[in-house]
Amino acid sequence: MKVRSHDLLRVLLSATERVKRKLGNQRQELAAAADRDKMRLYGDLINASLHLIPVGAASAQLINYYDKNCAPITVPLDPALSAAANAQKYYKDYRKAQTAERILTGRIAEGEQELIYLDSVFDSLTRATSTRELEELRRELEEQGYLKRQKGKQKPPPPMKALCFRSDDGFTIYVGRNNLENDRLTLRTARGGDIWFHTKNIPGSHVIVVTEGQTPPDRTLEQAAILAATHSKAADSVQVPVDYTAAKYVKKPSGAKPGMVIYTDNRTAYVNPDPQLCERLRVE
CB–CB of 123/233 below 8 Å? Predict the structure, then answer.
């Protein structure tokens, strides 16, 4: 499995490094744009002192009327421009920085979401136990543009079924193996009254308790939370936070990557992963 998953791991590591580099550059640009208010200040001070600035000056000592003490401030100038033109240039740079901040803020948020997505695929890869699971992950990466589609490739087999468990109270519990399966499980299989589980801010499987109109007892909810914690990146941790809510409160934002959802009306349980419990509850 390690040999067969090596190319997928390489793709994920490469994509992660690329996104991190891009985010680093964008954050530097955003930090530079944060200084934009100084550009507007310089423009205002130049306009208020046009008659005091000599032609060809490289800088000017101007009174800062915005300072409570009216302290003087040195304003850099372009000697090739008139005082009025220097003021307009500062205003232009201010507007440009303002636009850059808005664009960069959005792109940084997108980059951070992409890192979360890549981390979720990596988590699924570490838990894959069959060639079929690797093929589903490969198909997911192809669909998302991280891998080139193989020409002449045969039609993929039908999607795998989610892992199935039964709680000690007799409730069926489904666990997704990867993001594509998580989407199918949460958005297609689950009914509104079913209970959805996922580790809080940690990559992992979507878990669904099938209620069939009944109210699951606390023991079933706890076991479902343990399943979610065990099938997550926090499988080796303790006191793992797991959010849970009715499936009807789980939505997929437009354009979101596989497995990415938002949810409301949730509560949080803290549980310890338990592979032995998972094995005992597993339905073959």
Answer: yes
Q: Which residue has the tokens 């949810």?
A: 263
Q: Which stretches of 77-194 are assigned E, i.e. beta strand?
A: 163-166, 172-175
How many C-beta atoms surround the C-beta of residue 32 within 10 A? 13
User: C-alpha angle 29/79/93, rounded to 5°?
Assistant: 25
Report residue 215 as tokens: 């109210």
Tokens of 226: 């343990």
Q: What angle do CA 37, 42, 44 make, to 5 degrees?
A: 95
pLDDT digits (tens, 9 = 90+) for 17-57: 999 999 999 999 898 888 888 999 999 999 999 988 999 99
| Of 182, 277, 181, residue with least CA distance to 229 | 277
pTM of the model: 0.81
Angle at 215 between CA 203 and CA 263, to 5 degrees: 35
Tell me how far CA of residue 113 lies from CA of 18, 80, 143, in angstroms. Answer: 14, 45, 17
Q: Using CA atoms, how far apart are residues 277 and 114, in angstroms rounded to an integer? A: 33
